[in-house]
Amino acid sequence: MEIFEIITFVLGFLILIITFFDFFHTTLSGNGFWYISGNLNEFLSKIILANKNKRFFDYSGLIHLLLTTLCWLILLILGTYLIFISDEEMVVNAQTKVPADLLERFYYTCYLLSTLGIGDFTPGHNFSRVLSSALSFSGFILLTTALTYLLSVVNSVLSKRQLALTISTLGEDITELYNFFELDSSSALTDKSGDLRQLILKNASNFLAFPIMNHFMTRKKSRSAEVQLASLYEVLMVLQTQYEQKTVEYAKMNKVIKAIDAYTSMGISEEDDFENDEDHLAELRQFWTTRGLKYQQDSKKDRQMNASLKSAGWDWEDVYKTEDRW
Asked: Do residues 81 and 106 share a domain?
């Protein structure tokens, strides 16, 4: 083999290895994105968040999902194609045994990876036959795994929407939410805290299994888990100041707050990517002090919540937009 053929084969092989690793790490490892899909989705997220029109958010998840899948497919085709052009005898015409040209090799590559067969061409020697069999099988594995992954992502997104709607039905904003827990705090916390905590932790674990679900945004506050969790977090941090640490109510609220903390810490990896204006947040929280209520501040949790909100296209102002129902 000439040096160019060796380089082409090695390059194609490396692309396939990297693609397989990125694909399986993202879809099966439960450890989030790997390098390629992670950087791609971060880039797409910045473009979508730069668009101030929240109507675009309704399609963000679809865009992330389709382009991530397309990226894997393109890399798979590219790596396989480079392998098949590395040797003249890799692919030949099934009838004439004449070596295929570049376009015919591309046709053979796509046909092979689609698991439909080998088309009008055939491997030219035994090594090519082994490669074709292995690549055809890998194409089948990737296609079936990708379909299963897509369905699982959709189910996780629906669970995330359920979490948001569950909280929003308790109160449309922080005023209603506070009134719900404050009017009959003991009963409300006893009845709701366990279910809320389980639902929050379930969605937190989904972030690791299906990291792409974090990019399914929405323009409706009632459907945004980030906004609803921030509202719940703010209300619980106020209510906690009204109870002794040894009380059942305090313990139940603390468990829900820890679940929210787990959600925000798993959902966002880089807090520093988002501006955190502590002074502005302190001004917004005067909403409580002007009503004679105390707030228990936690800077670390505030930074995580800030990153969670802004990664979903929202801000603290959206949490504190409320009607006065005191």
From this structure: yes
